[in-house]
Amino acid sequence: MKIQNTSLYQEMQSMASQAGRIEPQVKQPMDATAATSSAQFGDILKGALNNVADLQRDAKAKVTAVEMGDRSVSLAEAMIAKNKSSVAFEATVQVRNKLVEAYKDIMSMPV
Q1: Enclosing H/E stretch for 8
Q2: Mean pLDDT of 78-92
Q3: How far apart are CA 88 and CA 48, in angstroms?
Q4: 3-class SS string, 9-44
Q5: Do 62 and 77 meet the contact criterion of CB atoms below 8 Å apart?
Q6: pTM of the predicted model, to two decimals?
Q7: What range does the record give for the signal peptide (predicted)?
Q8: How far is the CA of 27 from the CAs of 9, 22, 24, 42, in angstroms?
């Protein structure tokens, strides 16, 4: 059984939009995404790291609110925020590991 990545991704997006969580995104042509420069990669990486930092700050604030007895934040919200930040951080660590591995492979190539 062979699964096409693009069709699976499109199906997941349509299911998420039906659930009302996100709006469907307009598909960009492949030529526009293929011409990615290092400046754009840096911006994307910086944005992703800022997103992880924001998730961690939000989780910390919610956990602190629950610990202080704030009734506007439920325990479930705090646990979900904490798990989201944990998953985002683990994904960031895995991306970093892959980048370091790729760098080491490139540096060990003979010239």
Answers
A1: helix 5-19
A2: 95
A3: 9
A4: HHHHHHHHHHHCCCCCCCCCCHHHHHCCCHHHHHHH
A5: yes
A6: 0.60
A7: none
A8: 11, 14, 9, 22
With beta carbons less than 8 A apart as the criterion, state whether 47 and 88 touch.
Answer: no
Q: What angle do CA 68, 71, 77 make, to 5 degrees?
A: 90
> What pLDDT is recorded for position 110?
87
pLDDT tens-digit profile of 67-82?
A: 999 999 999 999 999 9
pLDDT at 49 over 70: yes
In whole angstroms, what is the distance from residue 39 CA to residue 49 CA? 15
Two tokens, residue 12: 């997941």
Q: Give dist(CA 53, CA 46) in Å, integer.
A: 11
**Predicted confidence (pLDDT) at residue 85 exceeds the cutoff of 90:** yes
